Amino acid sequence: MKSDLLNLSEEQRGIRDLAREFAMQEIAPFISEWDESAHFEPSLVKKMGDLGFLGMLLPEEFDGLGVDTSTYLIALEEIAVVDASAAVMMSVHNSLPTQMILRFGSDEQKLRFLKPMARGELLGAFALSEPEAGSDAASLTTQAVRDGDDWILNGTKSWVTSGNHAGVILAMARTDTPSERKGARGIGTFIVTPDMPGFHVGKKEDKLGLRSSPTVQLSFDNLRVPNANLLGQPQMGFVYAMQSLENGRLGIAAQAIGIARAALEAATAYAAERHQFDKPIREFQAIQFKLADMATRVAASRALLHAAAHAKDRGENVKQATSMAKLFASETAMFCTNQAVQIFGGYGYVKDYPVERLFRDAKVTEIYEGTSEIQRIVIAREQYSHE
Ligand code: COS
After folding, report:
1. Which of 87, 3, 40 is nearest to 358 (CA)?
2. HSE-up of 379 (CA within 13 Å, CB side)?
3. For 233-247, how does the pLDDT look when each residue is reduced to its tens digit (9 = 90+)?
4. Residue whose CB lies within 8 A of the most ligand 1 atoms, among 242, 252, 312, for a mutation test
5. Partner of 238 for a Cys bridge, out of 184, 206, 261, 343, CB 3.0 to 4.6 A?
């Protein structure tokens, strides 16, 4: 009896099955082709919106499903088992821009953006990183200058998931002045839309994995943003981004667990079929131990993730727990995909089987939304923060 350690309610089982069915029907048949050609399928956004997958954490008054964090992560894992690229689009949209507007936006901003975002009519993106500001996110240099009722933004944002298909981008820019820099407390968050003059989509990255999720640079060239599109307080944008990345990191952990589970399932099936030395290779202890370690780490990642999600929904401080969940799940994805390739042997190294793609897809989970090194810094700082 395989253990997922989740005691799912009837509603959660229904949402999980819907996500599984959607991914199997609408994504699975095209996955190799889209991966090979780095194709993002725009129709997925509307289809996912119609099913409620793009407004999972939004209240019903904004056309959302209003489910708890755990239920959202169950759906996300299910999509990620089939396609980590669709999963990251879903994770970023649900965890970052929609949540930021819901938590920190004005009533007018909520009314304008949240319903179309929940329905999949407007895809959301998050633009924090810059070419010279990655782990040290507060060193970003995109500048916002107040001009009457507007702000004028200049700078380049990088690594923006879905940035070339997004209808709404939450972008961080400096609101302090070059003569009086205020570090992390001199940054605002702006709701940018691609129709604003001065908005340009730049380089699309040619990536190792997650090839059907586009990652682009965005440049702002005297981009004029109305003050009505400033999110909350002009000096609080970095804090909003950090708080929101707690949600984001839970989403990436669920995505990583999906990748790890897909690797485990593929390796388990292959080990039963593949015969060497006159028996299925799963009868060799060398293979059994790999499968056991993979299954254990997947279960442990999931238990940690859902414990963090429940704590978040109880309103507890989950800064440390979300980083732990993301760290452990992403390293589990890398471990499991590596083991799966090893179990497949030469067949794991070619595109005829899915584990080659899973191995490539797993790596970025240790990098984006905070590298494993940054997660360890957050975990360690929290460990002694109350001394
Ligand atoms: N919740 C609420 N506030 C937070 C917070 C959180 N999770 N994390 C940080 N803050 C606040 C801090 O309390 C601090 O506020 P004060 O000015 O009142 O002290 C402020 O934000 C700055 O935080 P800190 O001093 O920790 O900033 P650092 O520059 O040291 O950066 C790290 C901290 C390294 C953890 C942060 O830059 C980070 O997470 N980097 C990775 C960025 C990332 O994930 N990028 C991926 C983007 S998506 S590809």
Report:
1. 87
2. 16
3. 999 999 999 999 999
4. 242
5. 184
